Amino acid sequence: GQAIGAHAALMPAPFQQKFARLFDDALQIPYPTIARVFQREFNKSPQELFAYFDEKAVASASVAQVHKARTWDGDWVAVKVQKPDVGRQTGYDLMAFRVVIPDTSVDFISTHLRAELDFVAEASNAQRTASLVASEPRLVGKVHIPKVYPEYSTKRVLTAEWIDGVRLSDREALGRVVGEELPEKSGGMFADTAHEKKNGIPESMYNLFSAQMFDWGFVHCDPHPGNIIIRARP
Fold this sequence. Notes:
Layout: H1 2-5, H2 13-24, H3 31-42, H4 46-49, E1 52-53, E2 59-60, E3 64-70, E4 76-82, H5 86-100, H6 105-115, H7 119-134, E5 157-161, E6 166-167, H8 171-178, H9 201-216, E7 229-230
Antiparallel strand pairs: 1-3, 2-3, 3-4, 4-5, 6-7
């Protein structure tokens, strides 16, 4: 669904709006379920672990939902909590996939899909990416990878620095951030770059993904609008 949403410019407006919701506006699981996840992972409630924890998620996708919280040190953080049924549902889906496609490639796909459910690995990838960005002069001061909080993270809970920003595909909000009015254009994963060159956003994006593919060999394979945000400062 998110893959289709990333190419929504090819579809009628109603389809664009529906698929766009899959990025961060999917059905949320209730707070009591979230609290049980914390009890299993930390043996504490969210209110014990954090000085403040918003019981209502600020975003929800297929695998997890994100809650805003504040650490006891006063840092605002984004807490990504894996939905409890995802692991079991992934297992069912992979079994069905294996029946439909009885091929050795299923093993490769299965391994990588299950790896996506390991938030400790995701935290490690984020920290590695932050180090790579910091070593690339073209990206320093232009691209920021949120700081990860390992002490508040497990295989099913990932806590990272809270970042205020707007989607790269949100033309109206993006115009406010960059201080210019962007022309109307429906659909698509990204806003029209022809009107953004002077603010440097396209150049930073090109440099970031070029470095991943041609220099580092370490690539972010899920760059949909829910995973890339823009703010006035890096």
